[in-house]
Structures are given as C-alpha cells and as structure tokens.
Design brief:
This protein is α/β, with parallel strands linked by helices. 41% of the residues lie in helices and 23% in strands. α1 packs across α4. The chain is built from ten helices and twelve strands.
Amino acid sequence: MFELKHLKTLTALKETGNIKKAAAKLFTSQSALSHQIKDLEQRLGEPLFIRNTSPVEFSHAGQVLLDLAKEIFPAITNAEQVLKAPTKQAQNLKLAIACHACFQWLLPISQQFSQQHPALAIEFLDDDFQQQALSADILFTDYQQQEDNYLYQEIGQFEVIAVSALNDSALGSKYDYVEAEQFKSVTLLTYPLPNKQLDIFQLFLTPKGITPAKIKQVNNSHVMLQMAAAGMGVATLPDWLVSSLSQQALLTRKRLGEAGLYKKLYAKYQANNRQRDIIEQLIPQVIAAFKQLYVV
C-alpha cells in the first residue's frame, strides 16, 4: 500500500512545510512529488494533508504515517551503521605456564576475563611445553632473561619452601630453615619434570652436589601435600600454594637455607604481538589475583 519513499516524502513535507521545498530537499520536481502524494492518497482512499495550509496540516492518515516514519527511519539508520561497521573477529589468546602450580589460580582469572570479553577465547597450552611456549601469546614464568622483542611484566614475588609432616624429624626441628645436606636422607616429592627444570635442584641442591635419598614424582599439588602430611616425603612448593590448601595445618614449613629461596613470577610476551592491547588488559587482573593469594 505504501513504501519507504512515501514515508520519506511525508517526513520532508513535515520538515519543510510545503511541497515545493520538500521536492527540493528530496532532489525531485514539484510535479513528481505531487503525483506521488496523489497516488498514495488514492491507494488509501483519503487525503494525507489539508490543502492550502501553511505550514502544512496533516490528516489523521498522514499523521499515522508520520509517526511510523519516526520509528522506522532511526531503526534503518542504526541497522546501516551496524552493517557498515567492521566485523569483530573472534580472538584466541594462548597462555603457557612454566610455573607448574600456577594453573589453579590462573584458570579462574582467565574464565572471568573471558566473560568480560565475549569475543575472546583463552587457550592453555600444556602439551610439549617447550614448543608450545614459543607459540604462546603470554608465557607465565619465574625465569627472566634479556631477549629482543620480548617484554616481561612482574606478577609478584614468592618463596619456595620445604614442607613435611607435622611431627616429621627428617628436616630437623632446631631451626626454621633446612640446609641442602639434610635432603640426603629424605624422599623428595616433585612434579614430573626433569631435575634441571625444578627449582629445588637448580637453585638449592645441585650447586652443592646433593642428591636426595629418593625422588617420587607426583602430578597433583593437592596429592603432593597430602603425601607430605602423611609422612611419605618432603615437598618444596611456593609459599602461596601451601597457604591456600587445607593441609597446611598438618604440615611443618621451613625455609630453604637460612636466607630463604625467593623467586619472581613474570608474564612474558612479544612487544609486537598483535593482541598486545588485550594482553595488557589481562595482566593487571593477574597481578591483583596473585596479591589475593597472600590475603589472610
């Protein structure tokens, strides 16, 4: 019965006040516009406005169509803007973790961040770590080195501590720290990694030529602490991890060496990473989450 062009004509007529000005606004002739209006009035069976009024006064039918135009044209404009806007492609952010125990608190943060950014998919890389770390957008690591084109953001500092059963005398009871030599007689509980990748060997035992009496590899941090609490060995873990788990009340905690063994956790990423903006939005949330690990 009517088309968008008719709504545009009535809108122009309302804005300008007469057919001559409306025709000029629509870049058409006055006669063509008059013909269009008469054609629509014939279809409707009633006039759209009262002739010889200035400014033009619309009939009931004309006002109904004007009200419709007020609703339709903004919606059309909005749809055009949406369709013309560049499509946001889904982003995939790959994370790799050299800190074996960090997964348990990084996972909730990544899930929360994904909810804040619906177009973002976060993937944790864990198979063939050495190779996967090269393709990661962010590597969470406790080792920093000078590399061209790589940036390191400090997440926080932690202490690696030794934990054993509450009444276990394997590490001695005289001091609140343990010396490397004392590991000669204990079963050391470790993650299933080569010794050279474990802090307890790289930074504490190997430099002094110490080898534990026995090494038992355990996949899970919770299980490792349960085994330590049961007197099945000694574990060396980040202090925040020990404090966050319920078994801490059943454990004896000791520093590694009189001065303690402290490390820093970093987020490593390429300076020219095309997702640098989203990376640098995530890191402050990771830093805040790490600080919460020490809040009692």
